[in-house]
Amino acid sequence: MAKSLRSKSKLQAKSLKRKGEFAKYDDERKKRIADKLAKESKDQETEKKMDVDQDKKISTSGWRDSRSQHFKQKLNKKKRKTLKF
After folding, report:
1. Are 47 and 40 in contact (CB under 8 A)?
2. Which of 23, 37, 55, 64 gives 69 a disulfide partner, CB atoms 3.0 to 4.6 angstroms apart?
3. d(CA 6, CA 54)
4. The whole model's pTM is what?
5. Which residues of 2-31 are buried (b: 16+ CB within 10 A; e: fewer)?
6. For residue 47, how many other CB atoms are within 10 A of its CB?
7. pLDDT tens digits, the chain, 85 residues: what are they?
8. Please, what is the angle between helix 23-54 and helix 8-19, to 10°?
9. What secondary structure does DSSP assign to 9-58, as a single string?
């Protein structure tokens, strides 16, 4: 039968390879990921500062695209079409 990738012997073999022959590639990869995360966090901080500076007003008094609002609008249209004498 085949050994699972989570078995102790497989995990130990992978960790030995990571420490030995693939250590250089593993360290480079970790460094790239750390640099990328640092850059992304820096970009997010500048975006937050820009958002705070602009403070645009958002209109909340318009048509809402929900099912209940759509139903209510249809009811109002039906009421308007009837004529009373």
Report:
1. no
2. 64
3. 51
4. 0.42
5. eeeeeeeeeeeeeeeeeeeeeeeeeeeeee
6. 10
7. 678 888 999 999 989 988 888 899 989 999 999 999 999 999 888 777 666 656 677 777 766 677 777 777 777 766 655 666 6
8. 80
9. HHHHHHHHHHHTTTHHHHHHHHHHHHHHHHHHHHHHHHHHHHHHHH----
